[in-house]
From TrEMBL:
Protein name (record): 2OG-Fe(II) oxygenase
Domain of life: Bacteria
PANTHER family for the chain: PROLYL 4-HYDROXYLASE ALPHA SUBUNIT, TRANSMEMBRANE PROLYL 4-HYDROXYLASE
InterPro entries: Oxoglu/Fe-dep_dioxygenase_dom, P4HA-like, Pro_4_hyd_alph, Pro_4_hyd_alph_FE2OG_OXY
Annotated signal sequence range: none
Lineage: Bacteria, Bacillati, Bacillota, Bacilli, Bacillales
Tagged with keyword Transferase: no
Length: 211
């Protein structure tokens, strides 16, 4: 008999009901658990997040020398923790959805990809030894529709998610079986037409915020 490992995400039925929203599960893959979720953000929340982030975007820089890297060619920014009422409301919803206390949440990140920009294959967890308080789960929320390209692709699973405004992909990588975690390798494929905006929430194993 095959054993199914315990997951962080814990919901029965075809939707997740949070305090302020009903979130349908559109598709699901087990082991590693990957969920495609509809209606995580309203269209007006998507637009407002883009507006708030727009003049705070910085080209991705990696490492101590702050060399602009080709690994991730998009721009990004982080909101302050619960920086306004809307961000706070979204963070609360995400924490309910991901079944992890908000105190374990990293700041909400916004990423913007222009045509040709991409995020090469990576793990969201840190792979160096002796990492304390590693990441355990991810929610990538799509803030707009992308005309062509920009899929979130899981190369080891040969699985792609097409960005759709208000929808999200959830995955977790806190399995005892290291191979399952490694299957969550993913990338943001190059945007071919249009632009792509996403909001990413990473959760930590232990408390991360001072709240
Ligand atoms: O842009 C995407 O589709 C993926 C983003 C991502 O992998 C991340 O923010 O960690
Ligand atoms: Fe990622």
């Amino acid at each position: 008999m095959t054993m199914i490992e315990q997951t962080i995400f814990n919901s029965i039925g075809n939707k997740i009901i949070t305090k302020d929203r009903e979130i349908p599960i559109v598709a699901r893959m087990d082991e590693p658990l990957i969920l495609i979720l509809d209606n995580v953000l309203s269209h007006s929340e998507c637009d407002a997040l883009i507006d708030l982030a727009n003049n705070r975007m910085k080209r991705a820089k990696i490492g101590k020398s702050h060399i602009v890297s080709n690994f991730r060619t998009s721009s990004n920014m982080f909101f302050e923790e619960s920086e306004n009422e809307m961000v706070q409301k979204i963070e609360t919803r995400i924490s309910e959805l991901m079944n992890i206390p908000i105190s374990h949440a990293e700041p909400l990140q916004i990423l913007h990809y222009k045509v040709g920009e991409q995020y090469h294959p990576h793990f969201d967890y840190f792979t160096s030894e002796n990492v304390v308080n590693n990441r355990i789960s991810t929610l990538v929320m799509y803030l707009n529709d992308v005309e062509k390209g920009g899929e979130t692709h899981f190369p080891s699973l040969r699985f792609s998610v097409t960005p759709k405004k208000g929808c999200a992909v959830y995955f977790e990588y806190f399995y005892n079986d290291k191979c399952l975690n490694e299957l969550t390798l993913h990338e943001g494929k190059p945007v071919e037409i249009g632009g792509k905006w996403v909001a990413t929430q990473w959760m930590r194993r232990q408390r991360y915020r001072n709240v």
